[in-house]
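Page 42, continued from yesterday. The earlier attempt failed because a stray header line got pasted into the input along with the sequence. Redoing it now with the clean sequence only.
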Amino acid sequence: MSNIIKIAAVALKGFAMGAANVIPGVSGGTIALLTGIFNELIEALNAILSVSSWKLLLKGKFKEFREYIHGTFLLWLGVGVVVSIFSLAKLMEYVLAYHPVQTWAFFFGLIVVSGVYMLCDIKKWKITDGLWLVFGVFLGALICMLSPTQTTDASWFIMICGAIAICTMILPGISGSFILVLLGKYEYIMGAISDLNWPVLIMFGIGCVLGIAAFSKFLHWLIAHYERPTLITLIGFTLGSLVKVWPWSDKISVMTAQLMREGQTAEEARICVESLADIGTNLSSLIEPQIFSAILWMIIGALLVVGLEWFSHRK
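This time it went through. Structure tokens are written below.
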């Protein structure tokens, strides 16, 4: 019975990690840290990538291989993560299609307060720390302003998205789904999960495997040797990237959602908005600002982070 309870606990923690990885601004690594499984997760990932583990497998020592890589832990954690992501993907697809202002406002509140908390965790600031922070903010804002709204759906780019996102998903404080937002593929990947678009999911999964294999040890080394400048730069990067999450930044999506809520189909709304844009219509004058609801959802997002921080300090 105790084993069943232990397995259920790991699966529930995996479910929480999966939910966090679906939401831009909340890191699955942070949830792993709060629930006390971060160290075992990192040890398991490093064990999978070690030569010793594969030697055991090639020699047919399956039990030893499973124990060496924390196989039972990884299996049930993975089950929880997958169930969570697939169950929440359709919800995210719906709210982004019909309520983009409120959704991005929620994410905006999450990211701002997360950044503030991470900055407060860094003690005894030096001039060099400030320079790393400014560099990170500049880099994040620059990438957001230079990156196109639409990116290619080619298989090679989906693989790259998977490789980059998986590395950030395991780091506390850094949101993998937020990286997908910057790459212009968050809604696309959520839609692929919701619709079970296997070609896209397989390419994304291959990218995740390659990303873990290529970068996890490098990231582990970087944090071990340059933890402070790395974390400060990542915090700055996250804050600088907020220009991408501003609720009214994508006027076409906001206007399309507005028409869909009025009864038009997604295709009809898209054609109508594109026609208005083509003739040079100022979409801002036609958009309902929804300022009150946006502020409300920003506050809700902020309070969620405050609650997580309170729980972590209590732990």
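Notes: The CA atoms of residues 13 and 37 lie 8 Å apart.
Reminder to self: strip header lines before submitting.
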